[in-house]
Amino acid sequence: MSSNNPAPQVRTRFAPSPTGFLHIGGARTALYSWAYARRHGGTFILRVEDTDVARSTPEAVQAILDGMKWLGLDHDEGPFYQMRRMDRYKDVIRKMLDSGKAYHCYTTPEELDAMREAQRERGEKPRYDGRWRPERGKAMPAQPAGVKPVVRFRNPTEGVVAWHDVVKGRIEIANAELDDLIIARADGTPTYNFCVVVDDWDMRITHVIRGDDHVNNTPRQINILRALDAPVPQYAHLSMILGPDGQKLSKRHGAVSVMQYDEDGYLPEAVLNYLARLGWSHGDAEVFDMRQFCAWFDLDHITPSAAQFNNEKLLWLNQHYLKLADNARLAADVAQRLARRGVDPGQGPALEAVIGLYKERVATLNELADAAESFYVDLHPPADLLAQHLTPAARAALADLRKRLAAADWSKAALSQAIKETLAATALKMPQVAIPLRVALLGQPQTPSIDAVLEVMGRELVLTLLDRHL
Ligand code: GLU
């Protein structure tokens, strides 16, 4: 098949402002932009929109990079920093001034206030009245001395600006609603909407996927793109994410920073799978990895309505992915969590084996670390727990068992056999021996199957711990 006008290669971008953490909403935007590029063999660009110097911090830039890395959302180009592109923006502004697509405006802030006040009194919407906008045959005001001008974009006055939003459908705004946007401040620095336009143009972005808090910027951005003869990308504005209570997702709802999920013991693949479904669907598929997601992801199945965050579902997915995860990988993670608690899993039972015992029984990596911790600390179960379970009869049974364990072949089958022999010798029932044994070894009446626990703990540790109670 040949075509004179092949569809351009898909190029998407994630363009966070580094004013805080990478939050869940931002991560979803990044994920969708990334997946769309991957789906189409395109290019995913990371752009840091750091022109708000008062609010942007290097720590926030790092937090975004860390969050993207943790999620595995790798970019093909960038990160580009807007602050390093100032010369380019200024150059475009100069050209727009030269070609009459933009103009200097000397209106002072006081004049603007007065203008708005008068408009309000007349019941009109406050807007710049175009007094410095050059028109054929228009007498321009005299340039005031000592006033540094801003630069305004000459917005079309007639007609409408419309686009087909891939998520929200057709959106149309009358140009009469839009006044002439300031594209450079009096000190020469370009403004937010203008930088976005130049970047999307220079970076040849084909699909702008972003939060719907930017819908209002889009008509202005489209008009500037058109004035620059730049192609207009497709826009997909994602609806916001609500907390479980239906309010806008915020800190009140718990973790909102992506890295907080790492800290709380979530696996990145669980968070990704969760975010993928938070506002997009593929039939009733709930559980899928990123390969599958990238093969399926399309913009047509993004839901226009707000998505609601559901912690239980995320936890459920986490549990699912913990079961699938490789023991060695989980052990490496849990070792770090234990180290942060001052617990060294280097001495004692093999951590991978401990992980194997528990990974199907927990919902988070922190719970896994909690369970593993008992295998590596000098365990002193609380006195009331000991009094409750280590009754004289239980101690006698454990003493019997100790003798058998000292001589047993250390395999699950042999350990299970030793316990059975103790049951026969003492005429006790399984729980009457197994529960005191669990309390003595791990300080908990409930553990995974006791023969598996014994096997993983090893003879030396088991006998040492038993001896404390005999
Ligand atoms: N920097 C903007 C934000 O963090 C995104 C701008 C865009 O995607 O066009 O909300």
Account of the 3D structure:
- The chain is mostly helical and 470 residues long.
- Among the domains are: 151 residues, HUPs (Rossmann fold, 3-Layer(aba) Sandwich); 49 residues; 87 residues, Arc Repressor Mutant, subunit A (Orthogonal Bundle).
- Helices cover 45% and strands 11% of the residues.
- It contains 19 helices and twelve strands.
- A three-stranded parallel beta sheet has the order 1-2-3, covered by helices on one side.
- Helix 1 links the parallel strand 1 and strand 2.
- The N and C termini lie far apart (83 Å).
- It binds glutamic acid.
- Glutamic acid (GLU) binds next to strand 9.
- The site of glutamic acid (GLU) has 8 residues, from strand 9.
Radius of gyration: 32 Å
Ligand species: glutamic acid
Count of DSSP helices?
A: 19
Helix content: 40-55%
Strand order of the largest sheet: 1-2-3
How many β-strands, per DSSP?
A: 12
CATH topology of the domain at 87-237: Rossmann fold
Going by helix content, strand content and strand pairing, the class is: mainly alpha
3D shape: elongated
Q: Estimate what percentage of residues fall within beta strands.
A: 5-15%
CATH architecture of the domain at 87-237: 3-Layer(aba) Sandwich
CATH class of the domain at 87-237: Alpha Beta
N-end to C-end Cα span: 83 Å
Largest sheet report: 3 strands, parallel
CATH superfamily of the domain at 87-237: HUPs
Average of the residue pLDDT scores: 96
Low-confidence runs of at least 5 consecutive residues: none
